[in-house]
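Record type: ASSEMBLY
Status: queued
Input:
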Amino acid sequence: MQAAGGFFSWEWVVNHLDDIWDRTVQHLLLTAIAVGVGVVISLALSIIALRFRWTYAPITWFTGILYTIPSLALFAFLVPVTGLSVLTAEIGLVSYTLLILIRNMVAGIDGVPPATVESARGMGYTGRGLFFAVELPLALPVIIAGVRIASVTTIGLVTITALIGQGGLGFFILRGLNLFYSPIGTTQIIVGTVVSVALAVAVDLALVGVERLATPWSTRRAAA
Amino acid sequence: MIDLQDLTKVFPGTPAPAVDRLSLHIERGEIAVFVGPSGCGKTTTLKMINRLIEPTSGTVRVDGRSAESMPAHELRRGIGYVIQQIGLFPHRTIRQNIATVPGLLRWDKAQIAERVDELAELVALDPDMLDRYPAELSGGQRQRVGVARALAADPPVLLMDEPFGAVDPIVRAHLQDELLSLQQRLRKTIALVTHDIDEAIKLGDRVAILSEGGHLEQYGSPSDILRDPANAFVADFLGTDRGIKRLSLIPISALDLEAGPVVERSATHAEATAVALEYGTDWIALRDRSSVDGWIRIADVPSDGPASVNPEPFQTRLTRESTLKEALDAIVSSHTSVAAVFEGTELIGMITAEAVSREILR
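Status: finished
Output:
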């Protein structure tokens, strides 16, 4: 099963394609849930921060603290409460997206030209209409930039959740570490890492595509 | 149509009011221009009309109704609004931008589409532009879109805050002319803010001159204000050339034209010299039957009379509708020191610098 002296086993890869596929899907799913839930929570907190400016400092302070907690420590705290579950993994993953997402959302809305806001109000837009019809769409490029960073970061972090029985591609890396100094071990570490990086690049590019589609106005400029 | 009564705005944390007990009335179908140095409260005043700024005290009535009798957003949907940077929505096409207020008023789609096409034609906007985004248009085109958008729901009142501030002088002059010709047809009640006194004089049926702290120094027609400034502030703001500025408001038809030193082709040298002497000119205009061909220096008239000469054409051709400013320009830039006025190809008379000066002093 293993070639003596080698450190990478193609045979293992070929025999475990189904396994790799399943873990990749799980990895993507964990990421999608984390970023999705993160966006919803961040949007709510951003609206609060924009509406009541004084809450912005405490919100960034709190999410900043979450951001700095070492992920291993966070999972160690959570396992006694929520167990070795998807929930535990997601609580951690979501926590790490908030700071990036909120900062970009608030900066995006703040960056909407005042003249645009004023003319919208002057034409009879009210608070909610103004936010959803004018401010949010115009903030989209900055918000999506935040989603890209959060997604790439989360894809890396998902591997850590292998320690609490989740992990997607991190499962291979963890098992590979336990089988170190054997070609099967190094093969699994390499597969887990390479696919994870490829996933991050693919998701980032996909989000660039989403941005192009969602904000056609930002790429079209006068020829003159 | 728009009635401001003791309108006052004191911004929190500032000792002096930005606008101080301002009262004035804007007639239906007129353009009232608010002009003054920065800090005179002209923009604040404008924004109190559509309640983007709430007055500290005083009242605004639009078409007899108090501005406070309805929710601010309803008031605003009934008042067109154009600002300096135009404020077009960069994420919406020109068509969607123009359709903004009809959309907020929930017109049906077919009606909105029809209205957008109508407006594009009204402001002379190429229909190809409608599906582009604002960033793809020139400054002048964007300004037209801004006006079309403000007119979309056909509001009786338009507020314009430095609408031509962001375009270069040539485009600005052109857009000002377009606004005036649009106003000829639409007869909206327009309140317009500018810091440019020349723009105020050109566009305003009435001009409100404000000084720092929102004091109304004078409110009246441009020609009244130029002829008779209420005080030193107004005179100073109008500038030392207010006589010349006023000329741009007076048409040539307001003056009695002088016949000028016109001599028949068949005249003798002595007759031609006598006419020039009578008018105090060193030249004569030559008439052949009914039409005047041009002019010639008296020194160049041959001793046998002007019958055979080839006269110089007049450089500038003015009509009765031309302004005295144009006439003065013709006078100072032509050799003849008079401006010839034509009706079609027919010379109907001349204007001298003295006649223009008499009109200023009148």
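Annotation: DSSP finds ten helices and no strands in chain A.
Annotation: Residues 17-51 of chain A form the longest helix (35 residues).
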